[in-house]
Write a structure and sequence with these properties.
The complex is a heterodimer. By secondary structure, chain A is an alpha+beta fold. Chain A is 35% helix and 16% strand. Chain A has a five-stranded mixed sheet, with helices on both faces. The mean pLDDT of chain A is 97. Chain B is an alpha+beta fold. Chain B folds into three domains: 202 residues, Aldehyde Oxidoreductase, domain 4 (2-Layer Sandwich); 169 residues, 2-Layer Sandwich (Aldehyde Oxidoreductase, domain 4), CATH 3.30.365.10; 307 residues, Aldehyde Oxidoreductase, domain 4, CATH 3.30.365. In chain B, strand 21, helix 10 and strand 22 form a beta-alpha-beta unit. In chain B, helix 2 packs parallel to helix 3, helix 10 packs parallel to helix 11 and helix 14 runs antiparallel to helix 15. The longest helix of chain B has 28 residues. The chains are: A alpha+beta, B alpha+beta. Bound molecules: FE2/S2 (inorganic) cluster (FES) (2 copies).
Amino acid sequence: MANYTLNINGKSREVDVDPSTPMLWVLRDHVKLVGTKYGCGIAQCGACTIHLDDNAVRSCQLPVSAVGDKKITTIEGLSEHGDHPVQQAWLEVDVPQCGYCQAGQIMSASALLKNNSNPTDSEIDTAMDGNICRCGTYTRIKKAIKTAAGNLS
Amino acid sequence: MTLLKTHIGRRAFIKNTSLASGGLVLGFSFLNSCKPEQAEKMAVREMPKEWFEINGYLKIGDNGLVTIMSPNPEIGQNVKTSMPMIVADELEIDWKDVIVEQAPLNTNLYSWQVAGGSRSISSSWQSLRMAGATARQMLKQAAATAWQVPVEEIRAVEGVLTHEASGKSAGYGEMASAAAKEAVPEEINLKDRSDFSIIGTSRKNVDGLKIVTGQPLFGIDVQREGMLIATVAHPPAFGMQLKSLDAEAAKKMPGIRDVFSITLFDDDFKRSAFHHTAFNTLVAVVGESTWEVMQAKKALNIEWEKAPSASIGMTMFGNDMEVNYPAGLENTTTHREQMEALNAKKGRVVRKDGNPEAAFKNAAKVIERSYTCPFLAHNTMEPMNFFAHVTEDHAELLGPTQTPEWMEPAIAELLGLPLEKIDINMTRQGGGFGRRLYGHFMIEAAAISQKAKAPVKLVYSREDDMSQGTYRPSYYATYRAALDADNNLTALHVKTGGIPESPLFANRFPAGALDNYLAEDWTIESNITTGAFRAPRSNFIAGAEQSFLDEVAEAAGKDPIEMRLELLKKAQENPVGENNDYDAERYAGVLELVKDKSNWNASPTGMHRGVSAYFCHNSYVAQVLDIAMENNEPVVQKVTTAIDCGIVINPDAARNLAEGGVVDGIGHAMYSAITFKDGAPEQTNFDKYRLIRHSEAPKEIETHFVDNGIDPTGLGEPPFPPIMGALANALYKATGRRHYHQPFITDRPPIVG
Ligand code: FES
Ligand code: FES
C-alpha cells in the first residue's frame, strides 16, 4: 500500500492503494467516480478512457504509481453541467443505446477534437477505433463528433 | 376512440391507501441520492411537496409534475423512454412535465417485466395506455365534482383540465389529490391514433444527460455503505468441475475478506431454462476492492476435474424438458465433423408439402449449398454483475437482469426465504442481447452475500464473462432448390441443425409459397451451455436462407427482389399448407418499401448491392446493403432498411435501435467467433474475440417504417438477422465470392462470379 495525491478533475484526492492498482479501479472503487467504465481490462475496448494531461489514455492500463502530478480528467470532470460541446452534441444526436460505452467514446472524441478541431472521417475512425460500442451506435457517434466540430468552429 | 374494459393489469389500478409523501428527490436514480449536489444541478424543476398515487404506473405532484414508472428492464432498447411516452400520451400531459423512474419488480402491479422476445412494447401496449387513460378520466371526474358540471364536458389537454361553458380550468396538480380518491373507471376510452401527441414523435433518451455526464446508472456502479466486492472462479473448460480448493495464499492477499465455494442449485430443485448455467459450483473471492479480488483470484490454488455426464430436468414456459450434458472436453474441429456427418443423414421431418422428391428428380437444375456459423459470446459491454444484500429474513438484489421475475423463485429457494422477502430492483443495463435472461449471477451474488454476511457486489471480469457459456449456438444448414426448364422454383429442401439446438422455423417463408417443400432438422448434445442471443435461431437461419435465395434468383435469371415478390404473391393468393406463420402482404410491403427507398432499379455506379428480407418477432424487415471497393477491399457504404413493426412509439430512438441491429449483424457475420479446444474457449477477451469497430461500420444507415397503424409488434430483434444475408449477397457482387461460413473474415471461398 502507498499514499498518492492525485489531481482529479481539478481537485486534489488522496488514496491509499497498492502501487500496481490501475487508475480505472482507483477512480471507481476508491474515489467513487464510476463514470469511467470497465470493459476489458486490457486496453482493447476503450470504455475506461480518461484524459491524462489532455491526452486520451486507457485507465485500465495506467497504474496509479505512474500518474505523478499529471492532471486526470474523467467524464464527470469534462464539464461542470454536461455542457461540453461533445456532450451537447451527444445529446442532440441522441447517441446512446445502452449507454455503457459512451463515457469512453466521449473522452476519446473530446481528446480528438482538442488536437484536431475538424477531423476527416478517416481521422475520426483512427482516433475512435479503440472504442467498442457493442450496441452499434458508430454512425451516430461519427455524426455527433461532426456536430461538435461544427459547433466548436 | 376505442372503448375498453379496464381489466388488463387491473391490479395496477388498485390504489395504494398510504399516499406517497412529498419532498422526495424523484426522477433521480436511487444511486444518485448519495450525491445531492449533483442531483440538484440536474434538476430542472422544483419537486412537488406532495405526490398523489393514481395507480401503479403514475403519481401526480401537487405542482403538476408527473412521475411515470417504467416497468421493464432497460437494456439499451430505450423502453425507459418509450413505455412512459405511451402512458403520458393517454394521460394528456406535456412530456416536459414527466419524470421517469425505473419500477421495481412487482408482479402484483405489472406483467411481463421481461426484456425478451422484442415484446416489451407489444405486451404492455394496452396496460400502459389504460394506466394513462384511467388517470386522465379520474382527473376529469375530480374536476367535474369540484365544478359541479358533467364530466363529458371537461377537456384534458397537456396537463390542464378545462370546462369551456363555465370558463373553469385547473392544472392536474390542483386536482391530483381529489383524483387519487376517485373510483377507478370500469370502462375507459382510449385515444384515436390520429389524436396521439407524444406517440410517434421523437423524444430524447430520458437518461441521456446522466449517461453523457457519467452519473451512476448501471449495476456495476452500485455503491453501498459496507459493501464488499466479490468475484467468482469457474472451471477453465466445459466438462470440468471443482475438485479441491486451497485458498490459503489468496486469503492472505491485501484486502481479501474471505474465499469459499458456493453451490447454486440442489439436484432436486426444479430449474427453469433461464436458471441454467454450466457451472453449479464456483469459488468466490470476497474483498474490499475490485482490483484486490481480481489479484487474489490469480493466487487461488484450485484443482479441477472432469465432470460426469448429467441430465437436468427443466421447465420452459410450463413445459417440462430434460437437458443432457455429455461428459468430455469438446473441440470445434470435432463439432464441425459431427455436424457434417449428421446433416448427411435423414433428419427429423418437421414439414413436408407436395412431393419434393419427385420435384428434385424432375428438376432441370438443382442448387445445393451449406452454411455454418460459430458459437458467439453476447459480450454485453457491461460484464455480468449484481448487488445482493442478504440478511436473516430479507434479501435485496439490485442490478442488471432481463428476467427479474423468473429469477426470484430460484433466489428464494437458495436462501430459504419466501418470495415476499425478496426485493429485486433493476438498474440501467449495459446491454442485454439475451445474455441477462439467464440470471445465474444473481443467484451467485445472493449466495455470496449470505455466506459472507455482508452486502456484496459480484463483478465478472471480461474473461469470466466470455468463458462462462450461455453462447449463441453453432448451427449448420443445407439448402437445396429445384428449378424446372423455365427456371421456376419447383421445390425447396432445408436440412438444418446445431449444437445443441436446431435453428429451423419450418413454417416461415418460403414455406407456403412452394408446392413442394421439405424441412428437416437434427440436434447434437453438448456440455457447452447456450442461450438466446438477439433473435435466437433467426440470427443464423435468416442469413443462410436469404443468401441461398439470392443464388436461386441468379440461377433462374431473376431479380432477387422480384423473385421474392413473386413467391410472396403466391403465398398470399394461393398459400400452400395451413400453418404458415407470416403475413405475406406485410412481408412484400417491406420489400416494396426498400426497393423504392434504396432506388433498387437505379443502382449507383461502383456500388455492389445485396438485398435480404426476413420476418421474426411479429415484424418484417427488408434491407439493401451497398458495398464499394476501396483499395481492393470491400467497404460497406450504406444500408437502407425498411421495417414493418406497426405503430412506432419513438421514431428517432427506433431508428437508433435499427441502426444498431445493422451494425451488430454485419459485425457478427463478419468478425466474431468462439472456438473450443479441449473444452476451453480460445477467445476470452477482445484481443482475440473480434467485435466490429468504428471504421468497419457502414458509413450511412437509413431506416424507413411502414405506416400502417397496426398495434406495435417487435423491434429490438428483427433488424438484426436479415442484414447477414444482405451482406453476403453484396460481398458476392463486390468480390465474386459467395460466403457460406461465418465469420466471413476467416472464410476463403473461391471466386465464382
Ligand atoms: S477497460 Fe480499459 S480498454 Fe477496456
Ligand atoms: S451504447 Fe451500448 S455499448 Fe455503446
